[in-house]
Amino acid sequence: MELVQQNPDIDAYLAAGEAVDHEHPVVRAAVRDLSGRHPDAYAYAAAAYTHVRDTVPHSMDAGDLRVTWRASDVLEHRTGICYAKSIAYAALLRARGIPAALCYQRLADDDGANHVIHGLVALLLPGGRGWARQDVRGNKIGVDARFSLAEERLAWTVRPEFNEVDYPVLYTEPHPAVLDALRAAPDRPALWRTLPTEL
Description:
alpha+beta, two-stranded parallel sheet, 7 helices
C-alpha cells in the first residue's frame, strides 16, 4: 500500500498542536531522558516506540476508565487507547525532529460483524525507505506488535473479506472523528460506545 501525505509539506509532520503537544514539559522531559540514552535517530525512534507501547498500558487492557487525548496527558497519566498512545508516540518523534504522522485501520471483531477505527503512527527516518507504520497499542495474548522499518509488525493485518481497510492517508493531526470521540467521552465505557467505525 502506498501511503499518502495529507499535507505535502514535511514540516507539517514536525509541528506541535493541541493533541500532539510536544512542547509540553512532560513530553520534553521524556524526550531528554530517551535522547540521553539513545542519541541516534533510529535508536531513539525504537526506544520511544517501546516506551509508549510498554510503559503506557492500553486503558482497556488495564481496566482504566480515564480517557486521554493530549500527548502530555498520555505520558503523565500513563493510560490511553490506541489513538491516544499514537498521539504520544508522534509527539516524542516530532520533538526529536523525526517526522511523524497519524494513520488508521478499519478493523472488525472476530466474526466481522462490528467495525472500529484503530490508530497507528507512521514515521520517516533519515536514510530510510519512506514512511513506515508502527503500532504502539500494547501487546497482549494474540498481539505481538514490534518496531520495524523493514516490514510491518502491526498488531493486526487487515482482512478484506471482513471489510477491513488500511487507510493510506497520513494525517498531521488526529482525524476529526477520532479527536471528537476522545474529547467528548467522560470515561472509557462512554468512549467505547462512540468510537468511529469508518473514516
